[in-house]
Amino acid sequence: xxxxxxxxxxxxxxxxxxxxxxxxxxxxxxxxxxxxxxxxxxxxxxxxxxxxxxxxxxxxxxxxxxxxxxxxxxxxxxxxxxxxxxxxxxxxxxxxxxxxxxxxxxxxxxxxxxxxxxxxxxxxxxxxxxxxxxxxxxxxxxxxxxxxxxx
Length: 151
Fold this sequence. Notes:
Layout lengths: L1 H21 L3 H23 L5 H25 L6 H6 L9 E2 H7 L18 E6 L8 E6 L5
Antiparallel strand pairs: 1-2, 2-3
Helix pairs in contact: 3-5
């Protein structure tokens, strides 16, 4: 019986040492937290950088200018007067309308920040071409861009 008690104490002492060795040190917890946080921050930055690059922002701003130009300037001024839009625009569905330069987009815009695009793109070599689509209304078109920019 003495052997069983003594052996039992040794097992409990051994188990206690094992559990104590498995308990993380507070310094290890801090280091592990820092490593995991750093990995998470790097992953977030790598995911977000393409959305805030100069190239993405410039292309996005040119796209907004093109939309504003077609819907608020070109379409109302050129295609007013009760004309049959499918007849007028149907001819240009495949070939597209004449290319519009960035210079024209900037001049037709009321946005004062649009002029900042000149520092990144050549305003005479950057174009957008509009392709009207059925039902040939103000918002039914697709665009193709030709960029001459320093991203």
